[in-house]
Amino acid sequence: MTNPRLALLHPYPFERWRELTSDIRPPTHLAPIGLGIGEPRHKTPALIEEALVQALPALSGYPATAGEPALREAVAGWVKRRYGVTLNPATQVLPVNGSREALFAFAQVAIDDTKPAATVVCPNPFYQIYEGAALLGGALPHYVASDAARNFAADWESVPADVWARTQLLYVCSPGNPTGAVMPLAEWKHLFELSDRHGFVIASDECYSEIYFRDEPPLGSLEAAKALGRDDFRNLIAFTSLSKRSNVPGLRSGFVAGDARWIKPFLLYRTYHGSAMSGLVQRASIAAWGDEAHVAANRELYRAKFAEVTPILAGVLDVKLPDAAFYLWAGVPAVCKGDEIAYARGLLAQYNVAVLPGRLLARESGGRPNPGAGRIRMALVATPAECREAALRIVAYSQELTRRPRT
């Protein structure tokens, strides 16, 4: 017998997409270009690689789940420099093996499945880990409607009062995946007020915080809490990762920070779960959090790609420069009649460019249609030359669709 809750899980978006394209044989004369998976492909900074090598002696000992004091202090130092927020490294910071692992695990601490209809609220479209964490924790996911007119910002007002009343955990993502939208201070104020009223904890996924296109960096949840006088960060935990910031997705390194009342039980859970971060990874992470030069250089690479590619695509798709993150969330041509799956299949079959259909990242809910329908997500993680070539192929394909006689 297996855990019956496993049967509640939806196929992961990339697995579902592989199934939907298993019959396609892309043209071999065109080099494949993958824009579907949000996996950073820029070079890992040398200072991180060197720190890993120098830390090899750490293999001889078991790492502590709470992490080395030096790592927690490095994280607290980065938060202070980035957000102007002071954290207690001993009680308000905890290293984790990447934000994905922590976002899932935290739900197992926050959810009390003995309560009737325990609920986890999340945006829609969303990162599928939120849904899986809720279901395996014994809770009901509630998908918040999004407003396309406001860059797919979550419509928190659409959540019924009885849903808020039984909510135990709220996932938010800012900058958002897949839209790149950043939550303003007024939105944070509203969510904090709801949290105070109903007692739920907020898990803020901020793994894209260091890839942005305006001069001002995105507002973070801890920063918002401080600005609103919530210096204890009550019922707030922020999740941050080095993967996108420092181009080390294979390092699996990040941290959580915020309300010490939640950090303590999360540490207890992780101690039993065996989630201690390798000593090698800890030393490399200290080097990464202490350096901003490689982060600025990384950001400029993305800015240059988006500045070149977005105008090219805007001629055939409904797309614009996002606030942040490395995704373009684009509407397919009108001739496709909202069928982004057919559009993405044709693009792969004829031009060997992989994108991710939007409806695989969202759900139908509350009588409303899937908010991802008619849109595709493109991760501009490839080289500048590959991203430009992909954009030109997308233009050619879209123009070809428009010229075809309608039946």
Please name the defining characteristics of this protein:
407 residues, Aspartate Aminotransferase, domain 1, 7-stranded mixed sheet, 14 helices, 14 strands
Task: Describe how the helices and strands are arranged.
Blueprint: H1 13-20, E1 33-34, H2 46-54, H3 69-83, E2 93-96, H4 99-110, E3 119-123, H5 128-136, E4 140-144, E5 146-147, E6 153-154, H6 161-166, E7 167-173, H7 185-198, E8 201-205, H8 221-227, E9 236-241, H9 242-246, E10 254-258, H10 260-273, H11 279-289, H12 293-314, E11 327-331, H13 340-351, E12 353-354, E13 356-357, E14 375-379, H14 384-403
Parallel strand pairs: 1-12, 3-4, 3-7, 7-8, 8-9
Antiparallel strand pairs: 2-10, 5-6, 9-10, 11-14, 13-14
Helix content: 40-55%
Tell me, briefly, the overall form.
globular
Q: If you consult CATH, what is the topology of the largest domain?
A: Aspartate Aminotransferase, domain 2
Could you give the count of β-strands?
14
Kindly report the name of the CATH homologous superfamily of the largest domain: Type I PLP-dependent aspartate aminotransferase-like (Major domain)
What structural class do the secondary elements suggest?
alpha/beta
Largest beta sheet: strand ordering = 2-10-9-8-7-3-4
- CA radius of gyration is 21 Å
